[in-house]
Amino acid sequence: MGVEHASANDSANVQTFLEQLFEQGLLIPSDVDGLYGRGAKFERLVDAISDLIGAWGIEHGAEVMRFPPAMSRTLLEQSGYLQNFPQLAGTVFSFCGEDIDHRRLLKCLDNGTDWTEDQKPTRIMMTPVACYPVYSVMAKRGKVPERGYLIDILSYVFRQEPSIQPERMQLFRQREFVRMGTPEQAQAFREEWILHARWMFEALQLPMTIALANDPFFGRGGTIAADSQRALQLKFEALVSVINPDRPTACGSFNYHVDKFGKIWTIRTESGDVAHTACCGFGLERIALSLFKHHGFDIDAWPTEVRTTLWP
Ligand code: ZN
């Protein structure tokens, strides 16, 4: 997904949908763009979407792992995220001063001036991609068994990209599956998920197309990285043209990392080769927003097939 700029017309439309979402109690506003609370009805739908995706994992015997929405700074440094997407990363800072610094902090708060001087980066960063915490955990287990690994992940993730487009939140949830093993296992997994996603969106009666994609790599070198990612067909996205017909929303992505993470975190297969990995993940809020936009705010009035898909 690239960083997009809304035109004046677009933002007028977008705000209307966002305002509707607030009015319906689906999202709860805050004073930060892209940071929202969720109402009961919205959560009920997000849970159902998550369960629909998760059903595939139950069927395939995926190992369930849950991580908090923050992760080790060391792991994130190793991952290459800061090289490629420094603009999106969030670092957790905390007060690390003495009494004298605290007094300065209190004074700043009283005066309404900058109080962040004594804030120092901690060992923790916000998780930007749900699957990042999992690779080093699996590497520590030793060689990947012949059948490979299949892991079910669900986490809030953070992206530093304030926006008034409701589909571009700063904190949102990804339900993801990660496959580790041979190149064949990783590729077959991704192919299977692309097919399964076609079925899923069809069952939800959302217009979806699968398209070759690239990540929003930062800076001058970013174009080269993006071109190479496309040339190698490493990333495909599930695009849904509902929230904004002019700019389809990526509601899922199907990523083949080749041996990148296998090399970074020394994951090896039984035969001693570097393991290949792939991950397929979905943005739960984006799918929920697409459903509300496409089928309306009254869930009871949605097509029966859509409702029984979500609540079997
Ligand atoms: Zn992933």
Radius of gyration: 21 Å
Overall geometry? globular
What is the assigned CATH homologous superfamily?
A: Bira Bifunctional Protein, Domain 2
What summary fits the major beta sheet?
Answer: 7 strands, mixed
- Using the coordinates above, name the CATH class: Alpha Beta
Beta content:
15-25%
Total helical elements: 11
Bound molecules: zinc ion
The count of domains is 1
Mean pLDDT: 94
Which structural class do the helices and strands define? Answer: alpha+beta
Largest beta sheet: what is the strand line-up? 3-7-8-12-11-10-9
Write the layout of secondary structure elements.
Elements: H1 8-23, E1 27-28, E2 37-38, H2 40-59, E3 63-65, E4 70-72, H3 73-79, H4 81-84, E5 91-95, H5 99-111, E6 119-126, H6 134-139, E7 149-158, E8 171-181, H7 183-203, E9 208-212, H8 222-231, E10 235-240, E11 249-258, H9 260-264, E12 276-283, H10 284-295, H11 304-310
Helix pairs in contact: 2-10
The structure holds zinc ion (ZN).
